[in-house]
Amino acid sequence: MSALLEVEELDISFGALSAVRGASLEVRRGETHCLVGESGCGKSVTALAVMGLLPRNSVRQARRLAFDGKDILSLDEKGLSRLRGDRMAMIFQEPMTSLNPAYTVGSQMAEVLVRHRGASKRAALDRAAELLARVRITSPGMRLGQYPHQLSGGLRQRVMIAMALMCDPELLIADEPTTALDVTVQAQILRLLADLQKDLGLAILLITHDLGVVARTAHRVSVMYAGEVVESSPVDRLFNRPMHPYTRGLLSCVPVPGKVRRDQPLGSIPGMVPHVTQGFEGCAFRQRCALARPDCSGPIGRRRPEADRVYLCQIAPEEMTVS
Amino acid sequence: MSAPLIEVRDVGRVFNVRSGLLGQPKRIVAVDGVSLRLLPGEVLGVVGESGCGKSTLAKIILGLLEPSEGEVLIDGRKLSGIDRRERAQLIQPVFQDPFSSLNPRRRVRDIVALPLVAQGGASTAEVRSRVDGMLERVGLDPAMGERLPAQLSGGQRQRVAIARALVMRPRIVVCDEPTSALDVSVQAQILNLLAELRREFGLSYLFISHNLAVVEHVASEVAVMYLGRIVERNDAESLFRDPRHPYTKALLASVLTPEPGLGIPETGLGETMPDPANVPPGCRFHPRCPQAVERCGREAPETQLGARGLVECHLVAAA
Ligand SMILES: Nc1ncnc2c1ncn2[C@@H]1O[C@H](COP(=O)(O)OP(=O)(O)OP(=O)(O)O)[C@@H](O)[C@H]1O
Ligand SMILES: Nc1ncnc2c1ncn2[C@@H]1O[C@H](COP(=O)(O)OP(=O)(O)OP(=O)(O)O)[C@@H](O)[C@H]1O
Ligand code: SF4
Ligand SMILES: [Mg+2]
Ligand SMILES: [Mg+2]
């Protein structure tokens, strides 16, 4: 069966800046695919490209962009907005960008169902209350009448999730859904998402820069660096045997209790992410990479160490033993 | 035992805020009856969720905010009795957001020089060489001294903030979420730098963070704050190995270590959020506590002091 979401060779640019370069990924039903990488690597714009919500100053190209086997590259705004909020929904990093401060939680949630399904206001509000209870908000009736600013960050994020579920989407894109939250609330929200996935068979594309979140929620992971997906792998093997030098570096930077002793330095990646403009050649990680060699500034090979893994690097799997 | 560098005695801070023109005045209890000590050479980590009072406590210790009650001693002397210049030689801050804490209109070089210049006494050449030396020590090319903060990356800005804090050769550095705004690879660089500098200059840190893995990596002693109070304190190893307060347990259980296959923990905490404008009676954690008994809603638990540690919970016997 083909994946619910298929992205093949996606390019996004802002003027001379290449924000995303040849990114490919797939999200299957019932699966959580984590898109991980550091600030500015292109995670959010990739999600926006799928949703058809990129800003006007951008240019998007792709070999294929398909939802449930159907091409969405050629859909016009009307066709896209029919999909958005209906079969695919998105939770934004900053809830206040998608919650309107001037309307109550109830009227915003109900509006989604009225618009997409032509439901009555009454039925839509009932559905909203049901979903608030489902994301474990107590006294949903009272919450429906409140304004977004009257809710804590954790509650707002739950409301966002409930709102995204109004039309029973098949694909949920969540952009850093817990980054602004405390760890205890983060655990609660991620658990909720995992439960919903199990119950509803949701496909989730989860964007995060937190490797702990990735390890605990993902089935599959794509690691982005400077606009490229440099490695893609099932979660366990990514952590147990990272292939790309960037993935390896990134994993060594995270303090893991019990692994790196106090007073021992953490691993680190020297230098900074380069500014990548159009016409850029070679591996964008080469100035920071301990394994770099002269041919790293030429075209980079796409390597498949195992059938379900890919990474972009000049170094072959069998040479990738130095850590 | 050597005398503490920082001694906080029963410090409290209340903010009276009025929301809107006709809004009820609110009394926010940001810090409530906090006592702690930082010994020479130690790194005291302070952890807790957003709004629990960590930054308020840091500002009081730095002398940037008056406590409503209690007192702070730095190196055995009352903070209020130490003048600004001398204080600058004892204790310096590094804040979370280097962008808002660095003057955007001044060159990096002048930002780092400011504490030195404010002291007076040093010649221009001396200031220049100390600034260059410090910039180099934190991993910045002295040529970067000519730039404005906006022309630097987040990690570079945090290096500038560290250089500014250390140029005075203080004995204590108060780090308030020094890496929270940074990517993990940059965070690792900054944490490694802070560790090196601590050894090199014999510094002691008060290290505030909501990231428990980071605190476990850097701290020798840890205090856990909840709604303005320290509910547990212990040496780092004991605290992380054997947390005793139910809140500490929940907090540690919530940490998502990068280990696949472990799933998402169940914290057992309800949906109620702590509100410093509305501190619950009894144990302030009881509305969320998975182990709360009837007494917890009625009676505030005593502060139990053990050999090193402290814990405030009815269900925990003193150790
Ligand atoms: N509207 C825009 N105009 C110009 N450049 C943009 C715009 N939006 C994003 N970019 C650039 O595109 C690149 C990718 O940005 P994106 O927001 O996808 O990063 P990200 O991986 O989501 O980072 P973060 O973790 O900080 O959210 C960045 O270099 C960013 O500066
Ligand atoms: N100047 C102020 N006026 C009014 N209330 C304040 C002020 N400063 C802090 N508070 C309140 O005091 C409480 C404690 O705030 P503080 O900034 O110390 O928390 P924190 O633990 O540092 O949180 P965070 O992790 O979000 O930085 C919060 O409820 C905050 O809103
Ligand atoms: S391609 Fe070269 S520079 Fe890039 S990660 Fe691989 S070895 Fe390093
Ligand atoms: Mg983003
Ligand atoms: Mg703070």
The backbone outline of chain A, from C-alpha atoms, is globular
Which fold name fills CATH's third level, the topology of the largest domain in chain A? Rossmann fold
Count of DSSP helices of chain B?
Answer: 10
Overall mean confidence score, pLDDT of chain B: 91
| Spatial strand arrangement across the major sheet of chain B | 6-7-8-3-9-10-12-11
Cofactors and ligands: adenosine-5'-triphosphate, iron/sulfur cluster, magnesium ion
Give the proportion of residues in helices of chain B: 25-40%
Total domain modules of chain B: 1
Low-confidence stretches of chain B: none
CATH class bucket of chain B: Alpha Beta
Task: Summarize the amount of helix of chain A as a percent range.
Answer: 25-40%
What does this protein structure show overall?
- The complex is a heterodimer of chains A (323) and B (319).
- Chain A is an alpha/beta fold and 323 residues long.
- Chain A folds into 2 domains: 3-87 and 167-319, Rossmann fold (3-Layer(aba) Sandwich); 96-166, no CATH class.
- Chain A has 11 helices and 13 strands.
- In chain A, strands 7-8-9-3-10-11-13-12 form an 8-stranded mixed β-sheet, sandwiched between helices. In chain A, strands 1, 2, 4, 5 and 6 form a 5-stranded antiparallel β-sheet that branches.
- Chain A starts with a strand and ends in an 11-residue tail after the last strand.
- With 319 residues, chain B is of the alpha/beta class.
- Chain B has one domain (6-318): Rossmann fold (3-Layer(aba) Sandwich), CATH 3.40.50.
- In chain B, the strands form 2 sheets. An 8-stranded mixed β-sheet of chain B has the order 6-7-8-3-9-10-12-11, sandwiched between helices. Chain B has a 4-stranded antiparallel β-sheet with strand order 2-1-4-5.
- In chain B, strand 11 and strand 12 form a beta hairpin.
- In chain B, helix 4 (108-119) packs across helix 5, helix 4 (108-119) runs parallel beside helix 6 and helix 5 (124-137) crosses helix 6 (154-166).
- Chain B is globular, with a radius of gyration of 21 Å.
- Chain B starts with 5 loop residues before the first strand and ends in an 8-residue tail after the last strand.
- The mean pLDDT of chain B is 91.
- The chains are: A alpha/beta (323), B alpha/beta (319).
- Chains A and B meet through helix 7, helix 8, helix 9, helix 10 and helix 11 of A and helix 7, helix 8 and helix 10 of B.
- Bound molecules: adenosine-5'-triphosphate (2 copies), iron/sulfur cluster and magnesium ion (2 copies).
- Residues 43-44, 93, 175 of chain A line the site of one magnesium ion.
